[in-house]
Amino acid sequence: MKRYLYFKISASAVVLRQNIAIKCVGSQFNTEADRIHHSTYQFHYLDKESSMKNEKDDNEDKKDGAENNVPLQGLTRRGFLTTIGTGAVTLAVSDKLHATPAADAEMIERGEMTKVVLNINGRKYRLLVEPRWSLLYVLREQLGLTGTKVGCERGECGTCTVIIDDVPRYACMTLVVEAEGTKITTLEGLMKGEELGPVQNAFVEQDAFQCGYCTPGQIMAVEGFLRKNPDPSTEEIRNGMSGNLCRCGAYKHIVNAAKKAAELKRL
């Protein structure tokens, strides 16, 4: 028996649909197998068309949910961010409304000068300074004692170390008004005229520097440490010098210089 099979396929921008038309000539199939094959073929394409239609409906539902900003399941990213933003704004406004006014503090205008008397290297200096100035700034810019170097200016490297009342301190972290009434020693104060002091000589002999920029702070740290502990061990020297950094990595020579300085001071 002759059979004629016609396929008609139509495609659209949203979904691809397949319409199958099977036309058979004759009233009966030759065999039972032909009838079963034909029925199976029809059901296959009907199921496929039905599943494609259901998939289209699901996509349209998801699209509608996204346009209306309605989460299909759980909390969407947009919804989460919106909730967090709203909460932050509410908290900020609430804090502002209920905040207690801060106590009125006396404000010092920039440029207002204060009198100080500093004892530096055994000499007294009478100065007019701004209260915000650091001791480092005054030593270098006002007094010209440039042996104290500028490093990190936040109390990390130790390049600006000076000795205040026999204790090594960072000049960048010390306000000049704090230093009034104390005894300050800078690198220049370790010398006797043009003659180097014991710690300075020890650094030269032990080659305890490379670029030399951190050396003034290293020397002042050793000087202050030896005033407290004249005969330190290697481990004590390392602990005592831990607040001074050497980017060139000359730590071994610096420890040797500290030992040599201790010997020279005992002579």
Describe the protein's architecture and organization.
With 267 residues, the chain is of the alpha+beta class. The protein has helices at 32-67, 77-98, 135-142, 198-205, 215-228, 234-240, 251-266; strands spanning 3-11, 16-24, 114-120, 123-129, 161-164, 167-170, 183-185. Strand 5 and strand 6 (167-170) form a beta hairpin. It has 3 domains: 1-60, no CATH class; 111-189, Ubiquitin-like (UB roll); 191-267, Orthogonal Bundle (DNA polymerase, domain 1). Helix content is 42%, strand content 16%.
Biggest sheet: strands, sense, closure? 5 strands, mixed
Rounded average pLDDT: 78
Overall tally of domains: 3
CATH class of the largest domain: Alpha Beta
Helix/strand-derived category reads: alpha+beta
Strand residues, percent: 15-25%
Helix content: 40-55%
Give me the strand/helix succession: EEHHEEHEEEHHHH
Give the overall shape: flat
Number of helices: 7
Annotated CATH homologous superfamily of the largest domain: Beta-grasp domain
The Cα radius of gyration reads 43 Å
